[in-house]
Amino acid sequence: MGDAGWIVGALGFATQELLLFAAIGFLIGGIDDLAIDVVWVREKLRGRLRPVAASSLTPPRNPMAIFVPAWDESSVIGAMLGHLTATLNEPDLRVFVGTYPNDPATIDAVAALAERDSRICLVVLPHPGPTTKADCLNALWRALLCDEGASGRRFAGVVMHDAEDVAHHLELRVLGAMLTDAMAAQLPVLPIAVPGSPLISGHYCDEFVEAHGRQLPVRDALGAALPLAGVGCALRRDLLVAIAARRGGDPFDASSLTEDYELGLAVAREGGRTRFARAIDDDGAPVAVRGYFPDTVDAAVRQKARWMTGIALAGWDRTGWGHRASPVEWWMRMRDRRAILAVITLACAYLGLVMSGVLFLTTGAFGPVGQSAVTWLLLATAFLLLWRVIWRTYWVAKSYGGCTALLALPRLIVGNVIAMLAARRAMVQYLGLMRGKALHWDKTAHHFPSKAEIGA
Q: Rounded to an integer, what distance in angstroms lies between the CA atom of residue 243 and that of residue 224?
């Protein structure tokens, strides 16, 4: 009995410490998120978050170029480019598609379309792939400069897309108009849930609708540097020229896993501004980029691990903390890098709950929950968690409808599990980078939506 009492006592102490750590972590994170909500409500009441009518914007004078890096994308690139060129029915459009010599299937798919549409330019890198997405983008930049030299025309800017993106027919008008008084612009990204994967694929819908409906507008309103999503984003040509001059000729950093995120911060370093494009079409729908996201646990873990490695881990030493006199910038970059700490907090919380259950089964009590300090912390974090679920449900219902919003809570749990699995992979990747391991394009398999899903 003595040994059993000692074990129960040790279990109770460990449970108390885990729950206390998790409660403090959740409290800090919850207050952080609540502050974003307060700023969003303030800006909303001031009328600063009202979207503009895309049809009222003036299109750019010079044509826009589109960059599409493609490695092992033969299954989707044809449908994507076909939809893109049909949707953006502009004669001056130029689409540069980057491929690798050891990926003949993708080359053939792009070449077949380029033969029928002169607006598509097939670019084959001089070395085999996969390298990094940024390396492919640099090849497209060099192809753009050659195209300008041969044609005599000058592009206003570059729009970036992935090989599975569904473009909006007004995106060039919106992005081009934004670039008249900004160096870069970002459209909202609205994921489409893959049929048959409402939780894994669908949880991206919930996360992006909050990130691009609430967080990025707040960041824009506060004047902080705005990270780019890598799709549906536009950069002015003179900005890319300036960045390329600083980097020896290439504007995209081939040593980065998240070149899109870092490029958005580089705009601020160049003294420019990035605008978050809030525009609606004639039907009242947002002008946004849509597309499928990973629909399996393995694919989602690999994708989120790359984001964590590039932003939350490598970002500490690669991008720093911004302007020394900008508390807002420090706040936003800390939010960007809190992912690993949030995962540790989640793991402690789940483990503490399991141990509390064991205590209840063995002693009939929940142990530390009865202690006042932990109890009040748990009550506070429970309130903040409830607020977060309500707030997310609201955003999901606003963009995807009430039926989809019912999945917000289970998707939140699925997202937490994927984040914890991704954190482990991210740590391994980061340690490999610190030891000098070569970077490569750790991409996921892509699918392009059907016409019915695009029109949905």
A: 19
Bridge-based pairing state of the strands 94-99 and 184-186? unpaired
DSSP symbols for 236-261:
EHHHHHHHHHHTTS-SS-TT-S-HHH
**Sign of the C-alpha dihedral computed for residues 122, 123, 129 and 131 taken in this order:** negative
The DSSP H or E segment spanning 52 is: strand 52-53
Specify the DSSP element, H or E, that contains 148: helix 133-151
- 279-338: per-residue pLDDT in tens? 999 999 999 999 999 999 999 999 998 888 888 877 777 777 766 668 888 899 889 888
At 112-169, the pLDDT tens digits run 999 999 999 999 999 998 998 999 999 999 999 999 999 998 999 999 999 999 999 9
pLDDT in tens, 159-204: 999 999 999 999 999 999 999 989 999 999 999 988 889 999 999 9
Q: What distance in Å separates the CA atoms of residue 332 and residue 345, rounded to the nearest whole number?
A: 20
- Mutual angle of helices 2-45 and 339-363, in 10-degree steps: 140
What six digits make up the tokens of 161? Answer: 């897309």
DSSP 349-414: HHHHHHHHHHHHHHHSS-GGGGSHHHHHHHHHHHHHHHHHHHHHHHHHHHHH-HHHHTTHHHHHHH
69 contacts: CB under 8 Å, gap ≥ 6? 97, 98, 133, 136, 137, 140, 162, 163
**Strand ranges for 267-351 from DSSP E:** 274-276, 279-280, 289-292
In the chain, how many H helices and how many E strands? 17, 11
Beta bridge partners of 242: none
Burial of 150 (0-12, 13-18, 19+ CB in 10 A): exposed
Quote helix, strand, coil % in the chain, to nearest 5.
Answer: 60, 10, 30
How many angstroms from the chain centroid is the CA of residue 247? 25
Tokens of 128: 């085999």
10 Å CB burial of residue 71 (0-12, 13-18, 19+) is buried
Q: Which residues contact 66 (CB under 8 A, 6 or more apart)?
A: 84, 88, 93, 94, 95, 96, 158, 159, 160, 161
Helix (H, G, I), strand (E, B) or coil at 234: strand
Query: Backbone dihedral region of 234: left (phi > 0), alpha (psi from -120 to 50 degrees) or beta?
Result: beta
Distance CA 412, CA 207 (A): 9
